Amino acid sequence: MKDDDNAYEDVLNKYKKSETRKKYSLSEIVGLLKNEFGMAEFNKKEVSDLKKDECVSFKDIQYCLYTEDKEALQRLQVEQDAGIEEPEKELYRNEKEFARAIMYYKIQKGDRINVILEGKKDCLANYTVQGESEYIYKLLDLLRGAEEEFGL
Question: This protein's superkingdom (predicted)?
Fold first, then answer.
């Protein structure tokens, strides 16, 4: 498996050679994530704890995407941590809290990644990645405007 820098270089080189070099719209980015990595949408209420995050504008969240597909997680080079203990259901007040705990357990273990996209007028303004994947950070930076970000 390639390391993150090589994977990033592959994406960067592909982007540089592409005749469609541009700043991708939010809907194009969502389409790419769904098509290339099998990501599916989920309700932003499931990550309502982001309301407390000063780096996130919760009202501007347009898409919440995730994947638990093993192949996609491998392609995204999500870091794995087998040492995480699974939450015990009886420690939670209700099913909703337990479901959220399971979601974050899967993220910490490396069995799930969430990508939360903020935007206005079909333009990506900010994103949050829940899960460890340097690849997805670099990919999203490229798609939202590599020419400006990287001086291409």
Answer: Bacteria
**How would you list the strands of the sheet with 113-120, edge to edge?**
40-41, 61-67, 113-120, 123-130
* pLDDT at residue 149 in the model: 47
> Burial of 104 by CB count in 10 Å (0-12 exposed, 13-18 middle, 19+ buried)?
middle
Q: 44 exposed, middle or buried (CB, 10 Å; 0-12, 13-18, 19+)? A: middle
Neighbours of 39 (CB within 10 A): 23
C-alpha torsion sign, points 122, 34, 143, 17: negative
**Where do the domains of the chain lie?**
4-78+112-150
Report residue 40: phi and psi, to 5°.
Answer: -125, 160
Q: Is the pLDDT of residue 24 over 70?
A: yes
Structure tokens at 124: 């990506």
103 CB-side CA count, 13 A: 19
Burial of 6 (0-12, 13-18, 19+ CB in 10 A): exposed
pTM: 0.81
